[in-house]
């Protein structure tokens, strides 16, 4: 018996190494469960803890867990001189009071006016409003950022549409820049060789953060809406503008092969001239969100099987008739009705409890419970009067640690 114990006993140094390794694994597991704001404060406790937050295993583990809980919401305030970013961490309870916190942008002096192009796996893409060459990739919690090199266009662009996303097969983040030129028009689908004065000429560039270069993909025969591209199945999606495409098409950009294509949209059975619709992502599926012309309803259609027209299903119909009135405050009801009538309701994401998060009137958040048919305002103290809201996964992720 003694000889068996002697053979199984490990050297003291190896035992200590195993214990240290076990303690490190336990520490990583515990720390990975912290919300991002606490995790950032954790970095400043001591050098050892700071080093732990730079461990790629923690970055990956925390991001994996963050993707499964309620997102942070990033707010960009509109200001005549200098715009700012704020954030709020949503709790699991809609009734909780949430506190808005300011984010210090390290490059704000060089880009006072900006747009939020998109959020992907803990990273934001920001672009300049007046300077089309100013594009940054930015982690708003670690303050790590990268300014992209200038993208050369054949002519001076008049309008720019951006997109930002990640494809797991290539493990690459990409920025898409579509520049539209003034006073130059064309139509590649025209049966005769004439110019179509409804569609400006465009030039598409794609930037890969892996190669750190822009590539020119040529022209695009669609005029896309200025809203951020919606990322689903490794593809970014936009709706075309009504003045150029009477059918309001859905156009995708595949981040794997850098190709555009049309995606079939549902049969709304309405005249889109009198309605508006936007895109969203719910449960990992592409969604179309239709605001009816009478200002009474928000229809949410879900494409259950990607790129299959027959898989579109009208999953939700949110409106006055589907609300349990006695469970709503008068303030919630008034904001909801006004936003529906003005067409300012945007579907943002699905929360952990199954509620759908809606952005109403530019920064006022409402959670809609599908089971209870109740609308509740997400109470946030310190909200600016006018802002843009973006769902965001708070993470330590950075380009050097693509996940």
State the gist of this model.
This protein is of the alpha+beta class. The protein is about 15% helix and about 35% strand.
Features:
alpha+beta, four-stranded antiparallel sheet, 16% helix, 37% strand
How far is it from the N-terminal to the C-terminal residue, by CA? Answer: 49 Å
Percent of residues in beta strands: 35-45%
Rg from C-alpha positions?
A: 24 Å
Largest sheet: 4 strands, antiparallel
Q: What is the share of helical residues?
A: 10-25%
**What oligomeric state do these chains adopt?**
single chain
Describe the protein in words.
The chain is an alpha+beta fold and 403 residues long. The chain is 16% helix and 37% strand. The protein has six helices and 26 strands. It has helices spanning 2-8, 12-31, 36-42, 47-53, 56-66, 330-342, and strands spanning 72-77, 84-89, 98-99, 101-103, 114-120, 123-128, 135-138, 145-147, 159-167, 172-185, 200-208, 213-218, 230-232, 235-239, 250-254, 259-263, 276-282, 285-291, 297-303, 312-319, 346-350, 356-360, 364-369, 374-377, 380-381, 387-392. Strands 4-2-1-26 form a four-stranded antiparallel β-sheet, with no helix packed on it. It has a four-stranded antiparallel β-sheet with strand order 5-6-7-8, with no helix packed on it. Strand 15 and strand 16 (259-263) form a beta hairpin. The longest helix is centred in the N-terminal third of the chain and has 20 residues, at 12-31. It is globular. The chain starts with a helix and ends in an 11-residue tail after the last strand. 32% of the residues are buried. The model is unreliable at 1-12, 14-19 and 185-196 (pLDDT under 50).
